[in-house]
């Protein structure tokens, strides 16, 4: 009997560890859709149940001084390095494996899109879907967890 209790406790702890890792929080490597090259590192952090993501590092040495010259909000002409590109993401009330309600900025064209993110592969990858109107009208990138 005691063996079953210990096994159940260990399985519960393992499940909690996987669940803690399966959130969007962390450091993620992004990939350029057109070239397939690694583009940046984005750190997603959580405060009060709301997630935001900032560009922590640009991986192309030629883009270190890149600015968002096509942005139309307060990020206009600001450096992409250090810029908040994900805002106001919250865990979906109906699907605990999904975070949405926020927006993502594409610094290359200055446009913002509605956003849905979903950790996959035990939280080691993040499906990032930017869209206009409905999620069907968008594109998905897969980011890889760095830490």
TrEMBL record:
Residues 26-145 form the DUF2147 domain. The keyword Signal applies. Residues 1-22 form the signal peptide. It comes from the Bacteria. Keywords: Signal. This is DUF2147 domain-containing protein. It comes from Methylibium petroleiphilum (strain ATCC BAA-1232 / LMG 22953 / PM1).
């Amino acid at each position: 009997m005691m063996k079953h209790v210990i096994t159940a406790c260990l399985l519960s702890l393992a499940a909690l560890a996987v669940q803690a890792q399966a959130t969007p929080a962390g450091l993620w490597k992004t990939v350029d859709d057109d070239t397939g090259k690694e583009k940046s590192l984005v750190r997603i952090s959580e405060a009060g149940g709301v997630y935001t993501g900032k560009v922590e590092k640009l991986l192309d040495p030629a883009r270190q001084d890149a600015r968002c010259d096509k942005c139309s909000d307060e990020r206009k002409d600001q450096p992409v390095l250090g810029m908040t590109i994900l805002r106001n993401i919250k865990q979906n009330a109906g699907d605990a494996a999904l975070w949405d309600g926020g927006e993502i900025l594409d610094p290359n064209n200055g446009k913002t899109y509605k956003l849905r993110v979903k950790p996959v592969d035990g939280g080691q990858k993040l499906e990032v879907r930017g869209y206009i109107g409905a999620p069907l009208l968008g594109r998905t990138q897969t980011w890889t967890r760095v830490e």
